[in-house]
Amino acid sequence: MTQDTASGMDFLNIGPSAQILALGEGTVAIPTGSSSIYTNPSLLSFEARSGIQVNYSLWIANVNNQFAAFHINRDRFTFGFGVYSTQADDFEARDQPGLSTGSFSISYFSLSGAAAYQLGPFSVGITGQFLREEIFQLRAKGYAFNFGTSARLYDGRVTAGFSLNNIGTMENLNESSSTLPSLLKAGAALQLVEFTTPGKNDLPVLLSTFTEFSRPLGNNYTGDFTAEDADDDYYTIGLSADIADLFQLYSAYRFGPTERPFSLGMGLLIDQIKVNYAFIPFSTGYGTAHSFGVEYYFN
After folding, report:
1. pLDDT band, very low/low/confident/very high, at 98 (cuts 50, 70, 90)
2. Residues 34 and 69 sit within 8 Å (Cβ to Cβ)
3. Which pTM was predicted?
């Protein structure tokens, strides 16, 4: 399998929220609430309100991902804090061939803080992460930073974004340290057309599209679940539909080294609460991932 399903700190390559996953993680130019902390922190400036976000993903191979975060808008400054973790249980432990001597868990954890500053149509942001990994009795800590910038142009119809993600290092885990999946990402989102559906309801529909280019930096993690070409560039394109500021539909396709090229999702917005869902099938028969999230907006 490819880099997006690898073990190790590569969990940072998996979008923490259902909306990010539904959009194929091509969200360097798309605000996604508090979860922008992990994609492009500068996008926090373009959130109209402060918010709280929680998410749970049922990944393949009995892996579960949990995410919780919040952001607060204060004039030109926006601050955010988040927790992202993943865990897999019931690995069999053996000190020699034969029967298992027990079972153990593997877990990875990120605690993050972010700040963004907006000046006119432009914004810059930074995220700092404290990282921790635990495999059997082995433990290691580390740190990483995400840097981002973005701009909203033409009355908000076009958004451009650029980010450097997961720039940092880890302590040695046993004899060597895990390599962080550092990425360079650049992309743009465009509002295509807005129209009203025919009939008695006259629902307004806004269609938008986006594209993103991603380049892994350095030597990303390689292991049992990583393809030989996992360091290749990849491209993501997608389409979203906003129906009456109530329903949102998402779809995306990724070109490049991935076993989950296609993703779908939807969002339901009721007043201050938004519910998101993502459906992510794996092309190699390893199964399908599902992600569920809830956001609450205030101020």
Report:
1. low
2. yes
3. 0.89
